[in-house]
C-alpha cells in the first residue's frame, strides 16, 4: 500500500523581489510501505517544497497529496504524530551529550526515557552517548539528528539531505542506519541532489526536475540508465 501518494502537485511562489516562480508543475510521487525511497533532483528542482507540502508546512496550489492514507493538509493530528522529519540540519546544544539531548526531547514530548538507549542503539551512537555533541563528527551529528526524528516511533520518516557532506565511512554508517530503520518497519523518504548517495542508501527512487517527475522505480532499474 502507498504511504505517500502525490498526484499533479502544483506550487507557485509569488514574491515582490523574485516575481512568480513555479516550483512544482504537476508532480507525481508514490512511496510504498517499508521502502527507503530516494527523492533525487538538482538544487532548485522542488524537493524541499514537496517535503514541506507533505508535512503540512506549506499549502499546495493544486493536486492531491495523501500521507498514511489521509489527505494533506486536512490530515488529523493522529497522522502528524506518525510522521518524523529532519528537514534541515538541526541546531544542537553543543555542551549536551547525545544522551542529554534525547532525554530532554523525551521529557518535552512525554516519551519515556527508556527510549533514549533504544534510539542510540539504532543509530549506532551508544558508545559515544555520554560525550558532548561538540566532539562529534558531522556523521555522528547527522545520526543524532535521525535519532531525534525517530524518538516517537514514526511510521514515515522524511529526511532532507541527511548525507550532505559525509565522507565514505559516514555514508556507509548512514546506509546501515537506513537498513535498520526499514527493518524496524519504517518507511523513509530521503531527498538528495547526489546520484551516488541515492544509489547507496535507497531501494527505490523518484527523480524530479523543474517541478516534474522525470523517472521512478527501483534504484537498480532507474539509475543504471543515467
Ligand atoms: P530543492 O529542494 O530541490 O532545492 P526547492 O523546493 O527548495 O528545491 O525550490 C524549488 C523552486 O522554488 C526553486 O526555483 C526555488 O528558488 C523556489 N523557491 C523555494 N522556496 C521559495 C520561496 N520561499 N519563495 C520563492 N521561491 C522559492
Ligand atoms: P548518576 O549518579 O549515575 O548520574 P542518576 O540517577 O543521576 O545517577 O542517573 C542515572 C543514569 O542516567 C546516569 O548514567 C546518568 O548519567 C543518566 N541520566 C539521568 N538523568 C539524566 C539527564 N537529565 N541528563 C543526562 N543523563 C542523565
From TrEMBL:
The keyword Transport applies. One of its GO terms (molecular function) is ATP binding. It comes from the Bacteria. This is ABC transporter ATP-binding protein. Keywords: ATP-binding, Nucleotide-binding, Transport. It comes from Luedemannella flava. Belongs to the ABC transporter superfamily. Coiled coil: none annotated. Residues 4-226 form the ABC transporter domain.
